[in-house]
C-alpha cells in the first residue's frame, strides 16, 4: 500500500528537504500579509462606522430600522423607507438582469459565430467600464423622458392592474428608472461570469448529450445549467451586491423621496443614495451620525449577501460532487 506524500503547508514548508528556502519564506510572508490585510481593513472600516454611528444607535436603537420618518428639522431619523427602496430596486434589477445575462452568455458560448463572439463580448464588457455618473446622466437626459412619455403609459395601459404599474409618473426621476439603470450596470458582471463558467464546461459532456439525440436546448438545460449552477448563483449574488451598494447613478434618477410606495413609477430612495446625497450637507451631528448608521446597515447587508453567496455555492457544489 503506497502512501502519497503532500507538500507541507505553512511555515513547515520553509525547511523542506532539510534546507531553509528564503524564497518560500518570503512568499509565505507576503501572501499571509495580503490575506490578513483584507481582514484588518474590514475590521477598521467596521470599527469606524460603529464609532461614528454610535450617537444615533444610542438614541434610536433598533427602532431606527423600522422608523419611516426622516426629518432633520425635528431630529427624527429612520431607515425603513431606505431599506425598502434598496430591496425593491436591487431585487427588481436582478430579476430583469438574470435572464438577459444568461441569454447573452449562452449566445456567446453556444450559438454565436466565432467572428461575432469577440466583438459582442467586448462591447458587453465595456458596459461595466462606463462610469456610474455617466449612466446616471444618461438616465436623466434619455431614460427618464422615455419612461414618462413612452414606456410608462404602455406598461400602465397593459399591466395597470398590478400595484407596481398602477400609476403613471409625472417626472422622470422614479424607482423604475433606478431599476433600469441598475440592470444595465449588473448585466455585464453577471454575463461575464456566466460566460466564463459555460466555457469551462468540458466539451465532451456537451458533445455526449448531442450525440445521444438531445437538442441544443436540451443539452443546455441538462448539462450546462446543472454543471454551472453554483457559479451562476454566485454571479447573481455578486450582481445583487453591486446593485445594493450603487449610489451615484441611483441618486441621479431615483428622486430622493423618503416614503413608501408600491408603484415603481413613484420617486423613492435607497440607503446608498441617501448617504451620497446628504452626507456633505448634513446640518447637525445627529443627522451625520444617522447617515453613518445607514452606512453600517448597508455594510451589514453586503456582508450577509456575500455570506449567502458562499453558502449557496458550497451547497450546490456539494450536491454536484456528492461531498467528494
Q: Mind explaining what this structure looks like?
A:
- The chain is 70% helix and 0% strand.
- The chain is globular.
- 32% of the residues are buried.
- The mean pLDDT is 86.
* Strand percent estimate: under 5%
Largest sheet: none
Structural class: mainly alpha
Per DSSP, the total helix count is: 10
Secondary-structure element order, N to C? HHHHHHHHHH
Q: Would you identify the regions where 5 or more consecutive residues have pLDDT less than 50?
A: none
Care to count the β-strands?
0
pLDDT averaged over residues = 86
**Globular, elongated, flat, extended or rod-shaped: what is the shape?**
globular
Distance between the termini: 22 Å
Helix content: over 70%
* Rg for CA atoms: 24 Å
Which key phrases capture this entry?
324 residues, mainly alpha, 10 helices
Compact overview of the structure:
The radius of gyration is 24 Å and the shape is globular. With 324 residues, the protein is mostly helical.
List the helices and strands and how they pair.
Blueprint: H1 22-60, H2 80-111, H3 114-126, H4 132-159, H5 175-199, H6 203-211, H7 216-245, H8 248-254, H9 271-278, H10 285-321
Helix pairs in contact: 1-10, 2-5, 2-7, 3-5, 4-5, 4-8, 5-7, 5-8, 6-7, 7-10, 8-9, 9-10
Amino acid at each position: 500500500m503506497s502512501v502519497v506524500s503532500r507538500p507541507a503547508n505553512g511555515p513547515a514548508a520553509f525547511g523542506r528537504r532539510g534546507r531553509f528556502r528564503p524564497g518560500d519564506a518570503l512568499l509565505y510572508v507576503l501572501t499571509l500579509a495580503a490575506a490578513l490585510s483584507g481582514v484588518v481593513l474590514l475590521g477598521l472600516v467596521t470599527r469606524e462606522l460603529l464609532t461614528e454611528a454610535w450617537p444615533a444607535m444610542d438614541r434610536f436603537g433598533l427602532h431606527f430600522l423600522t422608523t419611516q420618518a426622516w426629518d432633520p428639522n425635528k431630529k427624527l431619523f429612520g431607515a425603513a423607507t431606505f431599506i425598502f427602496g434598496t430591496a425593491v430596486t436591487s431585487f427588481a434589477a436582478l430579476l430583469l438582469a438574470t435572464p438577459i445575462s444568461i441569454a447573452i452568455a449562452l449566445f456567446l458560448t453556444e450559438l454565436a459565430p466565432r467572428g461575432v463572439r469577440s466583438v459582442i463580448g467586448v462591447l458587453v464588457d465595456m458596459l461595466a467600464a462606463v462610469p456610474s455618473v455617466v449612466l446616471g446622466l444618461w438616465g436623466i437626459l434619455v431614460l427618464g423622458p422615455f419612461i414618462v412619455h413612452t414606456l410608462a403609459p404602455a406598461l400602465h395601459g397593459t399591466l395597470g392592474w398590478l400595484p407596481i404599474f398602477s400609476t403613471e409618473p409625472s417626472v422622470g426621476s422614479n424607482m423604475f428608472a433606478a431599476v433600469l439603470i441598475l440592470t444595465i450596470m449588473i448585466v455585464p458582471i453577471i454575463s461575464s461570469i456566466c460566460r466564463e463558467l459555460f466555457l469551462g464546461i468540458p466539451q465532451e459532456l456537451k458533445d455526449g448529450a448531442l450525440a445521444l439525440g438531445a437538442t441544443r436546448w436540451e443539452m443546455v438545460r441538462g448539462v450546462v445549467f446543472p454543471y454551472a449552477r453554483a457559479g451562476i448563483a454566485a454571479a447573481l449574488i455578486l450582481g445583487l451586491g453591486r446593485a445594493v451598494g450603487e449610489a451615484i447613478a441611483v441618486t441621479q434618477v431615483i428622486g430622493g423621496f423618503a416614503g413608501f410606495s408600491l408603484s415603481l413609477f413613484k420617486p423613492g430612495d435607497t440607503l446608498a443614495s441617501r448617504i451620497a446625497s446628504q452626507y456633505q450637507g448634513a446640518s447637525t451631528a445627529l443627522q451625520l451620525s444617522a447617515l453613518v448608521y445607514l452606512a453600517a446597515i448597508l455594510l451589514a447587508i453586503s456582508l450577509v449577501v456575500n455570506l449567502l453567496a458562499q453558502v449557496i455555492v458550497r451547497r450546490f457544489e456539494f450536491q454536484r460532487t456528492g461531498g467528494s
